[in-house]
Each structure stands twice: as C-alpha cells, then as structure tokens.
Specification:
22% strand; 350 residues; 41% helix; 9 helices; alpha+beta; 3-stranded antiparallel beta sheet; 7-stranded mixed beta sheet; single chain
Length: 350
C-alpha cells in the first residue's frame, strides 16, 4: 500500500513538473515572440500622411477597392551611398499605383513614367514649409521637394483617386530583399549592357542576385531608345517574377525563411503610419496572398512626347482620363492603355 502511495506522489510531482515546464515554455516562447514582434515593428519607418495632407483629398472609394502608391526611391544617403553621390535630395525613381480590386482576386498596376510633365500641386515640405504649385514639372520632382506626402498629393491631383496607403523601397533595401529570397529567376530576351546602371548580362535564363536585380530595374540606356518607358517594361516584368519567387520559396514550411524575409522586408520599407506595424503589413499581405503573376494587369500611364522638350512626356488626356475612371469604378482597363513600357519588355518570367 505504501509503495502505491509513493508511486502516486511521484506521478503527481511528474505531472506538476510537466505542467510547469509546459507553462514555462509558453511564457518563454511568448516573450521571444513579443521581442521578435517588437524588433520587426522597430524596423519600419513611417510617414503620417493624414497629418501632412489634411482633408483636401479625394474621397475613399465606395467599392471596397484599395489603392497603394509604391515608390522606388533613388536617394544616395545612408545605405544607398554606393549608388552615387548624396546631393541632399531624392527622387521617385519608380512609381506604381497598385489597385487591388474588391474581390481581392486581381489587381491593376499603373506605372507612371518619372519624366512625365505634370501640374505639381502646392505641397507640405519635410521642414514644415510649403512648396508652391508649379506647372510643367517632372513627376519625380514631387518627391524631391516634398517627400512622400507631395508624391501622394501629386498622384491624387492627377488621378482624382485617393491613395489608401504608401510604400517606399530604397536601393539598398531592394537589393537585400532579392538576396534574402535567394535571387529571382528571369529569362533575358536580349543582352543588356548599361555602364550607368552597371548591368552587363547576356540573353538567356538567369537567377538575378540583389545587385543584378537593382541594375536591371534601374537600366535605361541599355534598352530601346534609352527612355524611361523602356525601363518600365523591365520593372513590370521583374515585379511579376518577384511575386512568383515569393510563391516558390516555401515560407510557410520554414520559420527561419519567413522570419528572415520579414526582417529584411520591414527594414527595407517606409510606409504611411497606418501600415507601420507588423500586424498591419501582415493583414495587407493576407489580402494580397491569393494573387499570382497572372492576376496582375500591368499598364503604363498613356503618354506622348512633349511638344517642347523631346526628353519629356505628357499624359494623353483622353486616354489617361479613361484609365483613372476605370480604376475609380473598378471596371476593366480600357484597350487604349499600353500594356507595358515602350519598347516591349525585354524580360519574361523564368
């Protein structure tokens, strides 16, 4: 009888140790998760667009669509100094409006050529001042004079569409993101050599590392007529390949890969303040998770050569209006909108 009592006592102690051990594991895991969450949150830079832009903005869409302005910054400050001298300003080297349709099963992406002449509205500046409105200004100067807030305000003025969110990726962050993914497979349809972007690549199948990918999306003089329109075709093709790569790397089966990518991505981004948390970004990622390359309709703002300056382009008013109206109404984009940059993209998904 005594032996049974001792056996039960040992079992109770073993059970208690097991319970306390499990509880300790939960506490430690919870603390580790909280620390990782805090670290990822701390990676994200943000801009309070609502405070800077106020209420003089287009109304939000009633349809449930979501509009995100995505910019690639060409700042040479900080980690980006390897790509040229820092002259104290930056421009939006790449600009895309991502329109996520209400069903979340497709998206329209509109590239805005940086050399497009626009009426730049009056904008707040980072130092608390105001940049006056100007006519016939290159689109990418909006970022130069007023940062993200002015870029967003300029897009809203030209399109009549409210940007729900803003995301910016710098040179260094873009490169790290591609390297964290293990490179991005692409098939190059013709050799590209551009001494300015440092791209020298043969035709054929490649897996581009971060340095090569950055050179690809920056190249201008190595393709077509050397204009920004040719580069847009490359950028659009690369975005589709990047999405395909994310689908292929098996993030859900590898916590380390998922964390490494999250750490790199959050460190690479500047967002509007409403997106500046892991929770908000994860929510947006879930909304985008069902989209593959085939679900993206990628187009370029309809433009034509400026009558005064051949190195600049201007929107084709009738076609541009039709494009903006289709986005606002969540309708198919009109056939008059060019599907990619000029000349046709020189890259296809690998």
């Amino acid at each position: 009888m005594g032996k049974r009592k001792k056996s039960r006592a040992r079992q109770r102690k073993t059970l208690q140790y097991g319970v306390w051990g499990a509880a300790s594991l939960v506490i430690v895991s919870g603390a580790a998760t909280a620390l990782l969450y805090a670290k990822l949150n701390g990676n994200i830079d943000s801009v309070d667009l609502d405070a800077q832009l106020g209420t003089d903005r287009p109304d939000s869409a009633d349809s449930g669509g979501l509009n995100i302005l995505v910019l690639g910054s060409d700042s040479r400050s900080g980690d980006n100094e390897a790509y040229g001298r820092d002259e104290g300003s930056a421009r939006s080297d790449t600009a895309m409006i991502v329109h996520l349709h209400p069903g979340r099963d497709r998206a329209s992406v509109v590239s805005i050529p940086r050399d497009t002449l626009v009426e730049r509205p009056e904008c707040p500046t980072p130092d608390g001042g105001t940049a006056p409105a100007r006519e016939r200004q290159m689109f990418n100067t909006a970022y130069t004079v007023g940062g993200p807030a002015c870029a967003v305000k300029t897009v809203e003025a030209m399109s009549g569409i409210r940007m729900d969110h803003f995301v910016e990726v710098g040179f260094a962050g873009f490169k790290k993101l591609v390297d964290t993914l293990g490179g991005v497979p692409l098939t190059i349809e013709q050799p590209i050599r551009d001494k300015d972007s440092h791209l020298d690549i043969r035709a054929g199948a490649h897996t581009l590392d971060g340095e090569q990918a950055l050179a690809l999306v920056r190249t201008r003089k190595g393709i077509g007529d050397g204009s920004d329109l040719g580069r847009i075709g490359l950028q659009q093709a690369f975005v589709k390949a990047l999405i395909a790569r994310v689908e292929d790397v098996g993030l859900l089966t590898s916590p380390k890969k998922l964390y490494d990518l999250a750490d790199t991505a959050t460190g690479a981004l500047t967002t509007d303040s409403s997106l500046a948390s892991v929770k908000a970004l994860a929510g947006l990622a879930r909304r985008l998770s069902g989209l593959g390359p085939a679900d993206l309709q990628m187009v370029t703002l309809p433009v034509t050569e400026d009558a005064i300056d051949r190195n600049r382009v201007v929107p084709v008013d009738k076609d541009a209006r039709a494009l903006w109206e289709a986005l606002r109404a969540d309708e198919p984009l009109p056939d008059t909108v060019p599907p990619a940059g000029r000349p046709p993209a020189t890259v296809t998904n690998g």
